[in-house]
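Changelog note: in this version the structure field was regenerated for every chain. One regenerated record is shown below for reference.
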Amino acid sequence: MTIKTFVFSPFQENTYLLYDETGEAIMVDAGMFYDREKTQLTEFLKSNKLTLKRVINTHLHLDHQFGNKFLFDTYGLQPEACAEDEFLLENAHQSARMFGLPYTEAVQPIGKYIVEGDEIRFGNSSFSCLAVPGHSPGSLAFYNQQEGIVLTGDALFNGSIGRTDLARGDYATLIKSIQEKLLTLPDNTVVYSGHGPATTIGNEKENNPYL
């Protein structure tokens, strides 16, 4: 499996394109905000002869779903996320104004709900879904045991954890999620977060000051 990381929008959000030898791909947390970012993505898909099959969200904060409407309009793919985060779409434009962003296009509704235990499949690859609420009530992580990787959204970062002062965030819940769902993974599991560089579960156990 190949993981292509794009850093998009003023929030410097990590958008992940995952694909395997079949040419099938999924996108996790589509953060394209500017036209040049949308072009960068479509050109990468074309040049690598990839077929985008699913659009997945770890959670629905503004910066992680900017590109969902573009992907629906371009490829006809409806985003998938946890129902517990759907309320965040109603506040997307208000949130953008708070950050001074010219975000006026319609917000793309969720087309399919994901829950813990679901399998995210494409080509010859699959990820298991883990519920990691706390940063947002519907935060999810996606784990591939064979590849030894986990996509944690904004739950766990390299040397930090997600903020919990946003709507329906909760610090105690987030710490519990990290301890029970993420730190129980093998130490060599590579962590791909919603912002910043990759890390490993073992490194966070030893060095993350919040844990």
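Spot check on this record: The mean pLDDT is 97. Helices lie at 35-47, 62-65, 68-75, 87-90, 92-98, 171-182, 201-207.
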